[in-house]
User: Fold Uronate dehydrogenase from Micromonospora siamensis.
Amino acid sequence: MNDRSMGDLREQTWVVTGAAGAVGTPLVADLAGRVGRLVATDLDAPRVPDGVESVAADLRDQDAVAAVLAGAHGVVHLGGIADEADLHDLAEVNVVGTYHVLEGARRAGVRRVVFASSNRSTGCYPCDVPVHPSMPPRPDGVYGAMKVAAEALCQLYADKFGLATVAVRIGSYEERPANLRHLSTWLSPADCLRAFRAAMSAPDVGYACFYAVSANTRGWWSLEPGAALGFVPRDDAEEFAAGIPDAGSTMRGPQGGEFATPEYTLSRQRH
Ligand code: NAI
Assistant:
């Protein structure tokens, strides 16, 4: 095992932030039997399966975050505001909060942080442009811009401090695809678990970034960086196309669709 491999997760302590959320709840259930000690945290102490520890911590509170990370080998950082919102709130929770996780991890000697980033960091690329994580960000709103900032912090902590960090750009996490955009962006619940398991355990990671998206026939994002870490999605939104009214048409304009409109951002700013 080299320095940057995680080794056996059954001998380790992992913390999951945002553990009460849509992605966190099933992820905690999945990891409960795979990780030696699992600590689930959210604004309020989350409901957890037997054997999992549950702790309340606000990501804006640096001391509270540091206390949760004590003794951890790895962190899956899902917590935050999960959609467009006032920039000041996004900066405080999603950027400063991520800094608290990374800095807490550095001080506690944590080896790896897996960060839930978003496809919305590149949502202003047109639908006909295949996107690879090495391309410059083109966020489709201030939520996406703050994800870009948090990804940059992940890169910084890898380059400067040797903390392994993996930015997982989640597609559209849904039980099943519900609209034309989802035919390109859907991340099935099962593929989501595959993506996070790979990000947690892939060997030899410094900084990595990949799209967590199912193997959609109409997909826009390269699956190669995920495959390099062992993430191989198995589901395809196309199997549900018959139930989507405009599935016969081709999506045009920015990949973010409605999220990329000016109104979507402006209507959520306080001033
Ligand atoms: P969610 O909104 O269901 O869960 C986020 C959790 O973060 C919530 O339980 C919330 O209580 C917690 N949280 C919010 N502010 C907090 C604070 N100040 N301190 C501590 N905890 C706080 O979101 P979901 O869908 O589970 O997403 C998880 C992560 O994945 C988020 O970071 C989101 O931005 C990202 N993501 C999700 C996508 C999706 O399709 N669900 C797509 C792209 C990215």
User: Anything to note?
Assistant: The pocket of NAI is lined by residues 18, 20-24, 42-43, 58-60, 78-82, 93, 97, 116, 118, 170, 172-173 (CB under 6 Å). Strands lie at 13-17, 37-42, 53-56, 74-77, 112-118, 164-170, 172-173, 186-187, 207-212. The chain has eight helices and nine strands. The chain has a mean pLDDT of 97.
